[in-house]
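Why run this: before we spend reagent on co-expression, it is cheaper to look at a predicted model of the complex and decide which construct boundaries make sense. The entries below are exactly what would go into the expression plan.
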Amino acid sequence: MPHPELHFTSAPLNETTADAVLLALPPLDASLFESTSPDGDWPAIRTALEAVGFSGAPGVFQRVLVPGLENVPVAVVGTGSAPDADALRFAVGAGIRSLIGFDTVSVIAPGVTGNARALAEGAGLGGYRFEGYKADGAKKRAATVTIHAEGSDEDLRVAQVASSATALVKDLVSIPAEWFGPEDFAQRAAEVVSDLPVEITVLDESDLRTEGYGGILGVGQGSDRPPRLVRLDYAPEGASRHVALVGKGITFDTGGLSLKPASSMVGMKYDMCGAATALAVLVAAAELGAPVHVTAWLCIADNMPSGRAIRPGDVLRIKDGTTVEVLNTDAEGRLVLADGLVAASSEHPDLIVDVATLTGAITVALGNRHAGVMGDDAAVAEYLAASERAGELAWRLPLPPHMEDDLDSPIADMVNAKIGDPAGGSLFAGLFLQRFVGRASDDADAPRIPWVHLDIAGVGMNKGGGYGFTEKGPTGATVRSLIELLTGQA
Ligand code: BES
Ligand code: MN
Ligand code: ZN
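The model came back. Tokens follow.
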């Protein structure tokens, strides 16, 4: 497993048989230290922490020697004062991420009650390890984490499933594009769901041609590795609602003939993050047995320049018949998603969420830690509430009707990009996608299907150093919010 196995225990800490102990603690001035607790000798711990200058600030990590616990290595991680669920998830995540070289770890957050699930999630997320391709192996994080807290089986199951869904995204994104083309991705999706009550359909190049998926075909036509559209369906009996997830799965984004500069192309193996997220969230719903019908559409293509690639000025016909003049072949995500949104809409789900590393502009607007959210009011509100419960950052952006004119083309129904004007690049992309969201029924005046667009180009990859449970590299951001949206209390 790429993340630790999690357990709860009611045993006191001094009975631990783990290889190391992690204490999640607030600043020393907090009231916790003014009393002794049945779990430990606080005056002694306080003296040990004062000796190393432990501040208790969120995520601060230190190894310490605690009198009375000499037989087991001890580390402390700061939670900040009066930590809530988010602060505890962050702290335990930072601690488990930083604690290298121990197979089993016991975690305790003294004085904390009622946040067992957050503690477990922190351990599961922070304990992620990608085995990687280094000759001397990966950093060794804990294989088993025991949390000394009163948690339910349900808490444990949810934490475990959320951790493994997040790990799945990180695993898939980390694979070099050379070894993970469209066909590999489709095959891997089939493997991942093989033991679950999930139906999978893979459309290959000739199926895509027969069925008129011009966006996916156009983007993929420059590559020696032809595109795929994967439909995954989890339809439990008595499902209350049908949610479609549409993911951008560009296995590598060179930009195509509108070639990216060398430095911008680095990391573009992660342009399939959205499709990996859609897959992982569907898997999580199936593993949890959530009473909701989930369909995931993975729009998978390799964006390469070649003698067969689409050129700026070429016109593609999307599945619904809409024609698009491709002014910039690097604005490819919206082209594959257009086909995916049309396909998803044809089943009239109650909600469509698309997930995509869509625009560099989203990082200009929101930085690297907030997912960009666009779409219909009620659906956006539902997503934002879910992300709040999950403890993931997200921020809404508008879809301004006055920008619609920018989509006009003199020769086709629309263009795929504004040329020479970067203003509102993420909003333009959102407006483009909105045109492909279908109606709630076949009736021509039925309202549009409620829709949310998530631009994860900023949050999908952490280019900086690690913080909290987040390591450098792919983050799996939005996975837990989407699981929460599907399963949580609205
Ligand atoms: N995959 C990129 C978006 C991206 C950029 C993700 C940087 C992560 C980091 C997307 O396909 C793209 O190239 N978008 C263009 C759009 C433009 C040509 C209108 C961009 O953002 O520059
Ligand atoms: Mn691109
Ligand atoms: Zn892209």
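The two ends are 31 Å apart (CA to CA). The chain has two domains: 5-151, 164-489. Bring this page to Monday's planning discussion.
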